[in-house]
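Possible regression after last week's pipeline update?

I re-ran a chain I had predicted before the update to compare outputs. Posting the input and the new output here so someone can diff against the archived version. Not blocking, just want to make sure nothing changed silently.
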Amino acid sequence: MVREIPLSELKGCMCAWEGCKEAFEGDGLPPGWRVLVIARGLLFDAQNLLNADRDAVLCPEHFRQIDSLLKSK
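New output (post-update):
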C-alpha cells in the first residue's frame, strides 16, 4: 500500500530527473522546487490526484528545463 504524504509533511526527497542527484532534507518543499503530477481528468478532483500516473519533485534546474519546453502561458 502506498502512503500519501501531504506536502506540508514532506521531510526530504530527491529530484526525479534521471541522473540528477539534487536532494533536500527538512520540512516542506524548498524554494524553487516543484511538484510534478501527471494525472487524467481534472487536477482539482482529489480522486485523480490519488490515482495519478506519476508524481514526483523536480529541483529548480530541471523544473526550468521542463517549463521551457511547454507553450507560453
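Follow-up from reviewer: compared with the archived run. The helical segments are 46-50, 60-69. Marking as no regression found.
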